[in-house]
Amino acid sequence: MADLETDHSTHAFGLLPPPARTEAPADADADADAASLAVVVDFLSHTAPDEVEAAALRLVAPDAVYISLNFDNPELKQIEPWAGTAIGRDAYSRTFLRVAAYWTIEEFSVTAAFASGEDVAVFGRFTYRSVAMGRVFTSPFSVHAKVRDGQIVYFQFMEDTYASASSFRQSGSWIVKTTEATEAFEVGAE
Predict the structure, then answer these.
(1) Coil, strand or helix: which one is 140?
(2) Which pTM does this prediction carry?
(3) Distance CA 17, CA 41 (A)
(4) Could you say which DSSP state residue 72 is in?
(5) With CB atoms 3.0 to 4.6 Å apart as the test, which of 48, 57, 106, 137 could cross-link to 127 if both were Cys?
(6) 101 by DSSP, 3-state: which?
């Protein structure tokens, strides 16, 4: 079990209070782990446009935090409007409704999922095709979620944002210089 007291990633921004510390029998821990995992898997299984609003209403707390791709990046938010930190059930349903409008989901698979108390981790991969440009990309993804009283209260979704944003590229490239010792080079040219 991870020491939640030293996990400052969700508490540094004041988004969630520190979790309560209680000792429970091992069987109760396994039951709590399974229950937390079931809530997150249930939500991820119902993110299609015709299901996500009902899933959010049923499985997400009214004041739940949703962090998509980063905490706050105005430039990425121009490309992917759901990027950043948002609060409430609508943040969950709006994100998945927008994703379905931006991309055709060709494949989405979970490769590992586990829980420790209220903390849930999910890992996998997906392949999307951008609706506007027809560009296909495959990305790994990871989710860190927290479940309390049978509802998601925190959900952080990470993916390859360079690949996802690049799937909308119509033209253009970058000139990049990564270190003092290397020459600048062009990326993204077709």
Answers:
(1) strand
(2) 0.81
(3) 24
(4) -
(5) 106
(6) helix
Here the tokens at position 173 are 């490239």
Reading the block at residue 5, the tokens are 């007291």
Cβ pair 59, 43 in contact under 8 A: yes
- What is the per-residue pLDDT across 1-54, written as a single tens digit (0 to 9) for each? 433 333 333 333 334 444 444 455 567 788 999 999 999 999 999 999 999 999
Q: Which amino acid would we find at residue 36?
A: S
SS (H, E, C) 80-94: CCCCEEEECHHHHHH
Rounded to whole angstroms, how far apart are CA atoms 6 and 153? 19
Distance CA 39, CA 35 (A): 6
Residue-wise pLDDT for 89-107, tens only, equals 999 999 999 999 999 999 9
Q: Retrieve residue 169's tokens.
A: 């590229």
- Number of Cβ atoms within 10 Å of the Cβ of 81: 13
Q: In this structure, what are the phi and psi dihedrals at residue 85, rounded to the nearest 5 degrees?
A: -105, 135
Q: Which helix (H) or strand (E) holds 139?
A: strand 136-148
